[in-house]
Each structure stands twice: as structure tokens, then as C-alpha cells.
Design goal:
This protein is an alpha+beta fold. It contains 15 helices and 15 strands.
Amino acid sequence: MENNFQNISLPIDDFPDNVVIYRYVDNDFIFIDFNKNAEKSENISKEDLLGKKLIDVFPGVKEFGLYDLLLKVYREGSQEELDMKFYKDERISGWRHNSIRKLENGDIIVFYKDLSEYKSTEDAYIQQLQSLGHIMDHSTNEIFIFDTLTLKFTYCNQKALQHLGYTFEEMKEMTPVDIKPNYSLETFKPHLEALEDNDTTSLVFETVHQCKNGDMYDVEIHLEKMSANNQNYFVVIANDISDLKATKEKVSLLNQAVEQTDSMVRITDKDATITYVNDAFINNSGYNSDELIGQSSSILKSGHHGKLFYKELWDTLLSGDTYRGILINQKKDKTLYYEEQIITPIFDTNQKIKNFIVTSHDISQRVKMEEELKRLATVDSLTNIYNRYQMNKEIDTEIDRAIRYNEGFSLLMFDIDHFK
């Protein structure tokens, strides 16, 4: 029998697949030849197989289904396929696909592929698809897929259904225009045509979605054309931007208020470098914004405040407190002015100071008026010397000093009835 094995002349090592040749002997199939690819797949050498029975080497072959097909091909001469199926015994396991043919001399040749790696990849791909489906269903964005011909929805994730208030059965009979009151078919189709004509790969635009109960909300649409299973679809990811738009409107209103207020407003970083100034500050200081942005706030210093003053100011701010005070600052033309300031620290999410916002008023006229009123309250308008009220205060002060230091003092009085 060994000589018969050696007479096989088929160059099976040249085949890219695993190849095995069996011979039917005594109601079983014995190994006649075994190529190198098969040796590698089964982790067994050809010498260990030749002349051995199939069932002895691969005891799971009957349960696997291969034995019955080998017998059928041997008896009928048919060609059979054993589609991808999992084989397992105590020694090996894996996914196999077998093609079985009968040779002219009556032997059976089997071409088979080890598809274990492919199956593992396929399982991983299926798992990825399932994970992707889970991600899409549980996305915080609304996701829609609709047909390129009918424009009817073929998929809507849970977020879309919950937000719009429709069931998927209802959505399957609807098109994007049915939930976009700002569009008709005529005005919506140009978006689709741009994608169909490959003028662009995706579109981003803002519109409004309308719920089943009539409520409407602002959305940002990301629209793309995609292919799956040789069929094209339009995919929409819709992000509810109602809160974002409301925030933008508030920010815009705040910006408008800051720009139009009579109060001077400037913002600095934590090192007092100016990052923003409003029009009121520009008009008062004489600088333009380019001359101020990026400059230190010290550009406004007049030299009328000492180091101790600024130390107390910074100690207040760096402790996180708001500073309130009056500073004598200097304009671009070197004019001095009194600036009543409120400096407020701005904190980041870690509660660290990142900016300061300064709101202020030029109170120079008020200070001048207060000084004049103070002067008028203490001097005689005719003689420009102390009036009786202030003179009495001065005499009281001198009396207190004389008592404290046990000293005398002189008081000179003269008549100015005919003073001219």
C-alpha cells in the first residue's frame, strides 16, 4: 500500500488551498496525500498521516458532515461543497470550507480553506456593526436615513423619535420636508442635487424641525450621501441648537449692551494685559483699540499712586474679591482724570482667576465740583480766607494742641468793616 501512496503524481503543493487526497479502503477513507498548506493549517506532518484512517486522525469528521459527503462523492461521482462550518475535536478546531471531487482513479480530492481568521474578522465586523447600531440608537443627536428616490425615511434613531414624538411606523411614510416647515420639496431638492452631482461631499445648514404636537426647535443639519449594499442613501445628523442659539442671542445682546453703554469697560488677562475695550473707554482715553489691546494696564498710570496703593489693590483682587476705588489715571494726551472703578475677577472652571473685568466712570467733573463745594464751605467768597465756621474749627484745634503740649497761642483780631 505504501508504494501506491508514492505513485500519486499530482503537484498538490502548488495549490494555494489546503489539499487532501483520500482513498476508500475497508469502509473508511485513508490519507493518500496531504499538501504543505494543509500541514500548516492542521499542525501535523504529512508523514504522520499517510496510510491512516480519516476518523482516527479527525474523530469529529462525521459530526462535522464531511464523512457523509466523501462517501456520496465516492459512490455517485458528484461534486459537493461543504459550506463554512465549525470543526472541533480534542486536538484542533476551526472554521472550514470544503470542495470535494472524485479523481479518475477513484480517489477523492478535497480542496478546503481554513476560514477561522476570516470568521473571526467577520464576527468582529458584525460586533462592530452592532456596536455602531447601539451608538446610533443612543446618540444624543438625531440621526435619520432616507431613500434617494422616494425621500422617505428608512431609519430614525431613538433620539429623533423621542424628540419629534412620532413612531417609526409613522416616520417611514414621511420625508424630511414633513418635519422641516421652512422647506418645500422644490426648495429642499437643490441640497440633494448638489450631493447627487458630487458638487460637494456634505452639506451643513441650519433650519427648524417641527414635532408632531406642533412645537418647533432650531437644528443644525449635517447631510451626506452614503452607499451600502450597492444602494445610495442620504444620512442626516441633526443637532438641536435651540439652547445654543438662545445663548448666542444673550451674548449678542450683552455685547451690544457693553458696546453701547456709557460706562467704560475693559477686560484684561490675569496679568493685567488689556484684551478688550469698549467704545466708551476708547472715546474717553483718546487711544484707539489697536493702541490698547495687548498693552499692560499700566499704560494708564499717572504716577499719583504709590507702590503701597497698588499692592493693596492687587491683594484684594488676587484674594478673589472685587475691588472698588477711585484712581487718578492719564489719557493719551497726558490729561489726568479721576476714574471710579469696579474691578471683578473672572474665574475658570477650576476656580482660578483668568481675567479681570473693569467697569468705570470718569468722575473728574464730580470731583472738581465736590472740591469747589468743600472750598466754598470753608472760606469767605469775598476775602477768600476762612469763614467763621472754619475759623472756629481752627481755634478749637489750636486750643486742643495748647492743652496737650502745655503751650500758649496767640489770637489776633482786626476789624475789616471798611475793607476794600
